[in-house]
Design brief:
By secondary structure, the protein is of the alpha/beta class. It has helices at 11-22, 36-46, 62-72, 87-95, 110-119, 127-147, 153-163, 168-175, 179-193, 198-205, 220-228, 246-254; strands spanning 2-7, 27-33, 50-54, 77-82, 100-103. Strands 2-1-3-4-5 form a five-stranded parallel beta sheet, sandwiched between helices. Helix 2 (36-46) runs parallel beside helix 3 (62-72), helix 4 packs across helix 6 (127-147) and helix 6 (127-147) runs antiparallel to helix 11 (220-228).
């Protein structure tokens, strides 16, 4: 029997997910949590076969938990639940090795179908949404990495302040320059990055500057796109060889 852990910060949805999964004779729900930190602690302790994680939990979100599970090499496959993940989140999910992504507006049986595929060693990544998102996000990140090399350290700092949505006067004060000098720097940034406004700058650089960047170097955009393009029989992606499927793990334990 495949062991499943479920995490969602909405109590009614959490109980509904647990009940639905528990009714399937192939699955045993072995734990649940309403926040990412509690979920990660329980998963580290119990190492279930599959973890179903809401992508937008407070504190550590589902993507953070999945990425940490991958970094620690735990033999738990992760399935993310989302209402409307951004292209950056979908890209990072693929980069983190997430086994499945299920949209909450999907049919009720979609999650169970996903869990069965993931338990069998496959992936459930809706190609019509995920593929386009990954391609677009890979292109954006590749463009940023290429063009941002032209920026000086001062220009990078100004771009970081722009991403923080600070007004012009505050940026000038924080950086220690006049508004006139800031305007010159902004024009240079626009020219080097081939953008024409703060909005376009923010769209290009979002998630790419500063210590908060968690997945910027996950093997590079090309690696993520290549990973997504390796379909299994069900239209998803084969799981990394480093992780055992639940069935193989049980066979190993018997031995």
């Amino acid at each position: 029997m495949v062991t499943v852990f479920v995490a969602d910060d909405h109590p009614l949805l959490l109980h509904g997910l647990i009940d639905m999964i528990a009714r399937d004779p192939d699955f045993a729900v072995v734990g649940s949590a309403r926040d990412g930190a509690a979920a990660l602690t329980a998963i580290q302790r119990d190492v279930p076969d599959v973890a179903v994680l809401d992508i937008s939990m407070p504190g550590l979100n589902g993507l953070d938990v999945a990425a940490e599970i991958g970094r620690q090499g735990l033999a738990t496959s992760c399935v993310l639940l989302t209402v409307g993940a951004s292209q950056a989140q979908l890209y990072d999910a693929v980069a983190a090795g997430v086994a499945g992504i299920v949209f909450k507006e999907a049919a009720v049986d979609a999650l169970l179908k996903c869990l069965h595929r993931v338990a069998a060693g496959g992936r459930w990544l809706p190609a019509e949404i995920v593929s386009e998102a990954v391609q677009n996000e890979a292109s954006r990140r590749t463009k940023w990495r290429s063009l941002s090399q032209r920026l000086t350290s001062r220009e990078i700092e100004i771009a970081r302040q722009v991403l923080a949505e600070k007004p012009t006067g505050q940026i000038a004060f924080d950086v220690g320059i006049s508004k006139g000098t800031l305007k010159i720097h902004m024009n240079n940034i626009y020219r080097k990055l081939q953008v024409s406004s703060r909005t376009e700058l923010s769209q290009l650089a979002a998630g790419q500057i500063g210590p908060s960047v968690a997945h910027a170097a996950n093997g590079g955009a090309a690696t993520v796109v290549k990973a997504l393009a390796a379909p299994d029989a069900g239209g998803g992606q084969a799981r990394p060889a480093a992780r055992q499927t639940p069935a193989r793990r049980r066979e190993s334990n018997k031995g």
